[in-house]
Amino acid sequence: MKGKIVVISGPSGCGKGTVIAKLLDRDSSLKLSVSMTTREPRPNEASGREYYFVSREEFEKRIAAGDLLEYTVYNENYYGTPKTELSKAQEQGTDILLDIEIEGAENVRKSAPDNLITIFLAPPSFEELRRRLTLRGTEDPEVIERRLARAEKELAEKDKYDYVVINDDLESTVDELYYIIKNK
């Protein structure tokens, strides 16, 4: 039985990373697809764990070689999903989670892989999203404003997903996503 591909998207600061970490802690049979990016690592991030951090030139070589299921540019950096990791997990029957932006999700939908579930994780409010981004303390105010402007556009796309889950309580959000992944 082929594993499911579960796309989880949502604005920066909506809690995708935290929710995904909780899902992985809950069920060791779930696997996170590690995306590739040209952005600089944040403190405590390691290549191969959160992302594969590569140069712009390396990323563009991967695009030309057709090695990516999807890719997009976000805040002037490339982000993409390597095909090899995904196909291997699916063939092994492993459900694999993709934490990707809305453009990437659209590209995955267009490629029509088997067993695809798309989930949009939304913040309870725009004000709460601003608060979360500010408290994270990883970006300067200009970057936060760019992320918020992008978030407005992303929120307008949420109805294109199979499911929309509002992350207003961490444990209930994790429960809801886990139910969707295991039962749909």
> What order do the strands of the largest sheet run in, or round the barrel if closed?
2-7-1-8-9
Question: Could you give the order of the helices and strands?
Answer: EHEEEHEEHEHEHHEH
Continuous helix count: 7
CATH architecture: 3-Layer(aba) Sandwich
Q: What is the overall shape?
A: globular
Q: What proportion of the residues is helical, as a percent range? A: 40-55%
**Average pLDDT figure:** 90
CATH fold naming = Rossmann fold
Account of the protein in words:
With 184 residues, this protein is an alpha/beta fold. It has a single domain, classed as Rossmann fold. 43% of the residues lie in helices and 23% in strands. It contains 7 helices and 9 strands. It has helices at 16-26, 56-65, 83-91, 102-111, 126-136, 141-155, 170-183, and strands spanning 5-9, 30-32, 35-37, 51-53, 68-74, 77-82, 95-99, 116-122, 163-166. The protein has a 5-stranded parallel sheet with strand order 2-7-1-8-9, with helices on both faces. Helix 1 packs across helix 7 and helix 5 runs antiparallel to helix 6. The longest helix is centred in the last third of the chain and has 15 residues, at 141-155. The protein is globular and about 45 Å long. The two termini are 14 Å apart.
